[in-house]
Amino acid sequence: MIEQLLDITRLETTGEKLLLENHSVGEFLTALYNSFSSLAKKNKVKFSFSLNSLSDETWYDEDKLEKIVSAF
To answer: Where are the alpha helices (DSSP H) in the chain?
Structure first.
C-alpha cells in the first residue's frame, strides 16, 4: 500500500502521463469489489458497493484508479 501511495505522489510531482482508455468504470469497480469481497466475508467485515449503472463509459487510467481504490 505504501508503494501505491508513493506511485500517486510520483504522478503528482513528476508529471507522469496517464494512460487513458474509454471503458466502463462501473464494470471495473465491480471487478475490484468482487476481488475484495471474499476477503471481507472471511474476516467478517461488512463490505458493500452499489452503482446506478454498470454500462456508463468514461476515460480513465485503469492502473491509477486501481491504486487509488485499493489504497483505502
So the answer is: 2-14, 25-42, 62-70
**Positions of the chain with pLDDT lower than 70, given as ranges:** 1, 4, 72
Q: Which residues pair with 24 in a beta bridge?
A: 57
Q: What are phi and psi of 22, to 5 degrees?
A: -90, 105
Selection from 28, 46, 24 nearest residue 37 by Cα: 46
Identity (one letter) of the amino acid at 20?
Answer: L
Residue 36 to residue 56: CA distance in whole angstroms: 22
Q: Measuring CA to CA, which residue among 3, 24, 25, 7 is closest to residue 16?
A: 7
- pTM of the shown model: 0.69
Check if the beta carbon of residue 60 is closer than 8 Å to that of residue 19.
no
pLDDT of residue 3: 74
